[in-house]
Amino acid sequence: MAEPARADEPLLKTPLHGEHVALGARMVPFAGYDMPVQYPTGILTEHNWTREHAGLFDVSHMGQAFLVAEDKSHETVAKAFEALIPADVLNLKPNQQRYSQLLADDGGILDDLMVTRVGAPGHEGWLYLVVNASMKDADYAHIQARLPAGVTLNRKDNLALMALQGPSAAAVMAEKAPEAAELAFMMSADVQIDGIWCHISRSGYTGEDGYEISCHDKDSAALWRSLLAHPEVKPIGLGARDSLRLEAGLCLYGHDIDTTTSPIEAGLIWSIQKRRREEGGFPGAERVQREIKDGAGRVRVGLKPEGRAPAREGSVIVTPDGREVGVVTSGGFGPTVNGPVAMGYVARDVSAIGTDVHLMVRGKPIPAKIAAMPFAPHRYKR
Amino acid sequence: MTTRYTKDHEYIRIEGDAGIVGITDYAQAQLGDVVFVELPSIGKTVNKGDEAAVVESVKAASEIYAPVSGEVVEVNSDLEASPGAVNEDPAGRGWFLKIRVTNPSEIEGLLTEEQYQEFVKSL
After folding, report:
1. For residue B100, how far is the Cα from the chain centroid?
2. Which CATH number do you get for residue A237?
3. Alpha-carbon gap, residue A241 to A212, rounded angstroms
4. Which residue in A89, A117, A231, A337 has the fewest CB atoms around it within 10 Å?
């Protein structure tokens, strides 16, 4: 059995690191942090628990920051950020959140992120950003370098972030903060839980209903313990986070999307609102608009291998007659599907759902079909 | 009945001129939930240290190396339907394959139970 590689550089710790160790988590290096990949019950149990009850995830390694307009105008900060991302920020309602991407000038994806128009009183002209852990330094430098005068970026390294995901999440949160139950998908609110200030949003990365919960790092252990004390809630590591998001058909930056992929190739056109598609005015708009009009040459698709063997990232995708047409970007075993699932990029002419392809696994072709995503139905609170 | 071990966490339980190969309890715990096992075809000849099987957990694929040289004479086809047996009973129902040992002296070079337990403690 081959030993996994170990990184030598010193690892950062989230404010919940001690909680994970005390719970008996197996810690692994991830994006420069020492993170729990699984707790003693294991990935399958954690995955299924999240689909059936509620899972609690520490995602404090992700980057949280604010963009602030000195003139306290939403229009000012929205226009500044719209110059970097293709989402409609201008028409966000207070407390509304959107998924978007920081785009390079050639339309490649520098990172994906969540942007929220802050709704708390006295915060007009504020946007709240959540970016990927591995990209946060690069993202902040990129944003900083392109901001106009009068708009500043404040990175908030003293905030923790956790996610509570699963069909029981709403009932659990309702016991802690009644207003959480009524929150619509992709809307946020400031609430108190056990006297702790929290910014919560109805969102997540599992395909389930749930919340992401930001709080001050000094309060995070108390909040973590309070949520875990509920019998419906168990801690979930990065292993199940990955299998849950894969079944939900959600992209992982650096794997399914990166600087070589455009949002249209990645099937993220839904995250570019109509006004932005028409007006452009974001980096790479020319490519994005051309791909919307003419279609992209390759597209991200779901892949359902026949049999039980998982096809992992890097598996080459070929047609049954052996023509190479793409590559798997994420793949593994889907516990809810109870079988292997994958996603990857293929040439447009073989991207129709139901098309037969072969995935090359250890030199052998595994028959697979192009499949609709998500593999496990989304159960968001609409 | 003798069981010997490798530093890659395979075991081989000698039964006459053949040996049953699997992974140790330590290995299954490190791997996590096993979801698929790729077994070799019967009749395949392997040299000591060759890839003999592949075990897939939710997270990753890992190679299983032949602890000794020989011919694969039997495989545990029950693992197709229940790969979780590798986690539940690695020394029993979770076995992978049976090798007819061509060079018995190779067995002597493997770790004894005691030596393997010492090795695991040192990790």
Report:
1. 14
2. 3.30.1360.120
3. 13
4. A231
Nearest to B36 among A2, A239, A309 (CB): A309
Could B32 and A239 be called an inter-chain contact, meaning their C-beta atoms sit closer than 8 Å? yes
Average pLDDT, chain A: 96
Chain A residue whose CA is closest to B54:
A1
CA dist B52 and B6 (Å) reads 14
The answer to whether B10 faces chain A, any CB pair under 8 Å, is yes
Q: Are both A166 and A239 inside the same structural domain?
A: yes
Tell me, yes or no, if B88 comes closer than 8 A to chain A by beta carbon.
no
Which residue intervals of chain B are DSSP H helices? 25-31, 78-81, 85-88, 105-108, 113-121
pLDDT of B63 higher than 60? yes
For residue B47, what are the contacts with CB-CB under 8 A and spacing of at least 6?
Answer: B66, B69
**Total domains present in chain A:** 2
- Predicted confidence (pLDDT) at residue A25 exceeds the cutoff of 60: yes
Contacts of A362 in chain B (CB under 8 A): 38, 54
pLDDT tens-place string over residues A133-163: 999 999 999 999 999 999 999 999 999 999 9
* Interface touch B32/A43, C-beta < 8 Å: yes
Chain B residues close to A240, C-beta within 8 Å: 58
Flag whether residue A42 sits within 8 Å of chain B, measured between CB atoms.
yes
Partner-chain contact A1 B58, CB within 8 Å: no
Contact between residue A113 and residue A101 where contact means Cβ atoms under 8 Å apart: yes
Position A134: which residue type? S
Domain stop point among A188, A213, A247: A247
What CATH fold (topology level) applies to the domain B2-121? Answer: OB fold (Dihydrolipoamide Acetyltransferase, E2P) (2.40.50)
Residue A323 within a domain: yes
Domain boundaries, chain B: 2-121
The model's confidence at residue A7, banded by pLDDT at 50, 70 and 90, is low
A212 is in an annotated binding site: yes
Q: What is residue A115's DSSP assignment?
A: E
Structural domain boundaries enclosing A361: 297-371
Our CA-based measurement puts residue A243 at a distance from the nearest CA of chain B, in whole angstroms, of: 8
Interface membership of B29 toward A (CB under 8 Å): no
| Closest C-alpha among A310, A280, A308 to residue A292 | A280
